[in-house]
Amino acid sequence: MNHFWIILIGALVASSCSIVGCFLVLRKMSMIGDAISHAILPGIVIAFLLSGTRDSIVMIVGATCIGLITVFLIQMFQNSGVQSDASIGVVFTALFAVGVVLISLFTRQVDLDLDCVLYGEIAYAPWDTLDIGGMNLGPKAVWGVESIFIVNILVISLFYKQFKLCSFDSAMAAALGIPVAFFHYLLMSLVSITTVSSFESVGAILVVGMIIVPAATAYLLTDKLNRMIIYSMIIGILCSSIGYYVAYLLDASIAGCMIMIAGLLFFITLFLSPKHGVLLKKWKQHKIAV
To answer: How many CB atoms within 10 Å of residue 54?
Structure first.
C-alpha cells in the first residue's frame, strides 16, 4: 500500500508544480522556484518561534509571506537595473543565510533543522497519517498536496486568459487594462504555496525539479499553452511512476530517481522533438545545404 501512496504523492506534487511551472518557463523565471525554496527558510523559523509549533498550516503561512517578500525584492532589484540572475542570487542567498542564523540562535534545543524543514523524504510520507475521530484518512501529504493542486487548477482556470496574456505580452495586457502586477504576484503566491506545501513531505529536490523539468520538456513538444500544461502534467506523473520503480530496483533515493527520469525525458525530447528537436534542425540544415 505504501507503494501506491508514494506514487500518488509524487504524481500530485508533479501535477501541481507543473501547472505553475509552465508559466515560469514562459516568463523565463524558472529558477524563481529554487530561489523561493531557499529563501522561505526564515519564514518557517519565524513562524515556529511565534507559534511554538511545527504545524503545517502555520509553517505554510510564514513561508508564503517570505516567498512573496522574496519575489518583491527580486522585482525591485530588477527594476533598479540589477540583472535578473544576479537579483535572484542575491535575494535567496541572503534570506537563506538569515534563516540559518535564526536556526542556530533560537532553535538549538528543538527539532527544527535544515533537514526537517527543507529536505523531507517521500519514502516516509505514507507513515504520517491524518486521523480524525479515530478514523485513518491516509497520509497527510496526500491531503495537503491535493488541496494545493485543486487551488492551482481553480485559480489558473479562472484567470487563464489573464495569465496567458501577461506571460506572452505584458505590455499588451497592461494596455488592455489587465492588472499585470496583481497577476504576477498571484502567480508567485501559487508558486510559493506549492513549493512550501510539499517540502516536508517530499523534499526540495523533487519540488524544484518538478516545477522546472516537466514544463521545459512540454515546451519542446507544443506551441500551445493549454497543451503545454497538459503535457507537463502527464510527463510529471510518468516521472513519478517510473522513477519510483527505478528507485525500488536500485535501492536509491526516490526523489532523486524521479527527477533523474524527468531529466532523461527532457534530453530525449530535446533531440527527438518534432518541433524543436536538435536532430530535426540538423536534418533541415543538411537538406538545405544539399
So the answer is: 16
